[in-house]
Design goal:
320 residues; alpha+beta; 10 strands; spliceosome; zinc; metal-binding
Length: 320
């Protein structure tokens, strides 16, 4: 098993390499190699992004009639991972990079564009200085001024670093820690105050709700209406007016109903006294321990005559 891993092969003593026939292969022959995408690119056919470092089985060939300082330039063929379109790129030994040739566009080459722009500006400056001596003087003045500004900024940075070298960082950290603890303590006190205020507010609200519920359950006792004094009207109205009002209340106005005016007979004072004397005794009264006899039958009197008696009694009480 160990012999198969041996890399050195046995060459016999009569081995002659010149006798080995050489194969006649074309110069533009292609080889299949395994490589990774050298930069980010996007397929022109389907728009698929191919990121740097993606592995492909590519075909490699040597570019004919192109070289840089005797170094050959190689071309690589890969296929898009989505639409299988062919993408080609080749080496660029001058810039130690790769150049896109066909099938895709290169992305994120800002650094390369910046370098190319710097090279272009530098070349234009050299061309101007070659034909214009005043331009050389101006450029030198600008360079010296820029160098002085850079030195001033560098000196300011050095001074700043020296001042900061004497700073006690431990004291700064301690002060920061104390300020942080003070801030946390203040926040905790504020939270406690807010919590106490909320608890007090909820307690007051609960008390108000309890008091409202008690008021709803206990009905309010109605206040007794003040009874008017029955004799107050006697002191306010005259005697004649009181008589007329009492008569109208009991009988009614005679002028409004003339058919009843002939039926009402106003008794005199003597008739009222006689009628009171003839009033029967109480039915439950006892005389000498024996039941009283049946009351004598009195002639029935009309309601209008009783109203007249009521008005005469008021006249007699008023006169007394």
């Amino acid at each position: 098993m160990s012999e198969r891993k041996v890399l050195n092969k046995y060459y016999p003593p009569d081995f002659d390499p010149s006798k080995i026939p050489k194969l006649k292969l074309p110069k533009d022959r292609q080889y299949v190699v395994r490589l990774m995408a050298p930069f980010n690119m996007r397929c022109k056919t389907c728009g698929e992004y191919i990121y740097k470092g993606k592995k492909f089985n590519a075909r490699k060939e040597t570019v004919q009639n192109e070289s840089y300082l005797g170094l050959p330039i190689f071309r690589f063929y890969i296929k898009c991972t989505r639409c299988l379109a062919e993408i080609t790129f080749k080496t660029d030994p001058e810039n130690t990079d790769y150049t896109m040739e066909h099938g895709a566009t290169r992305n994120f080459q800002a650094e390369k564009l910046l370098e190319e722009e710097e090279k272009r500006v530098q070349k234009e400056r050299e061309d101007e200085e070659l034909n214009n001596p005043m331009k050389v003087l101006e450029n030198r003045t600008k360079d010296s001024k820029l160098e002085m500004e850079v030195l001033e900024n560098l000196q300011e940075l050095k001074d700043l670093n020296q001042r900061q070298a004497h700073v006690d960082f431990e004291a700064m950290l301690r002060q920061h820690r104390l300020s942080e603890e003070e801030r946390q303590r203040q926040e905790q006190e504020e939270d406690e105050r807010e919590t106490a205020a909320l608890v007090e507010e909820s307690r007051k609200r609960r008390l108000l709700e309890d008091s409202d519920s008690e008021e709803d359950t206990t009905p309010t006792q109605p206040q007794p209406a003040l009874r008017p004094n029955p004799t107050a009207i006697l002191d306010e109205t005259p005697k004649a007016k009181r008589k007329a009002e009492s008569w109208e209340r009991s009988v009614g106005a005679l002028g409004s109903r003339p058919q009843l005016s002939g039926l009402v007979v106003k008794k005199t004072g003597l008739d009222s006294i006689i009628s009171r004397r003839r009033a029967p005794p109480l039915p439950g009264a006892m005389k000498n321990g024996q039941a009283a006899g049946p009351a004598p039958q009195m002639p029935s009197t009309s309601s209008l005559s009783q109203l007249g008696v009521y008005s005469d009694s008021e006249d007699s009480s008023g006169s007394n």
